[in-house]
Amino acid sequence: MRKRGSQQVLAIAGTTAIALAGLLGLSSHASAKTHDIHMTAVESDIVIDGSGEKYAAWTFNGTMPGPVVRVTEGDTVNFTLIGHKDNSFPHSMDFHAAELDFLKNYHKTVGPGDTHKFSFVAKKPGVFFYHCGAGPMIQHVARGMFGAIIVDPKDANAWPKADREFVLVQSEFWKNPDNVQAMFDRKWDNTIFNGGIFKYHP
């Protein structure tokens, strides 16, 4: 489990492992590959619960959490972040699986219609967090700009083969997306998984 701030990405190994390879049809790589990953920072209303209530979220590709990224140890990721033309705020990207200069890469923001690119080699296997690094960072994360990147080990036998794979991203939810002080005070309204209140309740 990797934890930063109030967000957690849970990794469970065994016959049921966290990851989406089986569901997404992804497989382990025999040699290093290059992945061109594009995401758009989008400020949009999303449905937050079963009643259809909407929330003014800040997202990657319009979802909270953002899309799962999956690569293999040693792979190169060429990442492009695009700021949607209708956004009102600047946004950025911080991949915990990368080892790059924060100010040069993660703190670099994109405004409406702007683009920022950077590349990294996924050197360490594991399940890692990614999130917006624009300030106030806590608000960008709380409003939905986070997700998971999975780096499979180069040795396909290093982890046990899973019968089924899932990704669960835990986060906290604030009904008032502009109450930054409540975010710093850790006074959230709900603890949620994969961006929904009671999302898995029957």
Spatial sequence of strands, sheet with the most strands:
1-2-13-14
Largest sheet: 4 strands, antiparallel
Radius of gyration: 17 Å
Overall geometry comes to globular
Number of strands: 14
Termini separation (Å)?
27 Å
Order of helices and strands: EEEHEEEEEHEEHEEEHE
Strand content: 35-45%
Mean pLDDT: 85
Report the helical percentage. under 10%
Pick out the low-confidence regions.
1-29
Judged by helices, strands and strand pairing, the structural class is mainly beta
Query: Helix count?
Result: 4
Describe this structure in words.
The protein has 202 residues and is mostly beta strands. Helix content is 10%, strand content 38%. It is built from 4 helices and 14 strands. The chain has helices at residues 21-24, 102-106, 137-142, 180-184, and strands at 2-4, 7-9, 16-18, 34-47, 54-60, 69-72, 76-83, 94-95, 115-121, 126-131, 146-152, 164-166, 169-173, 190-193. The chain has a 4-stranded antiparallel beta sheet with strand order 1-2-13-14, with no helix packed on it. The chain has a 4-stranded mixed beta sheet with strand order 5-4-7-9, with no helix packed on it. The chain has a 4-stranded mixed beta sheet with strand order 6-11-10-8. A hairpin with a 2-residue loop joins β1 and β2 (7-9). The longest helix is centred in the last third of the chain and has 6 residues, at 137-142. The chain is globular, with a radius of gyration of 17 Å. The protein starts with a strand and ends in a 9-residue tail after the last strand.
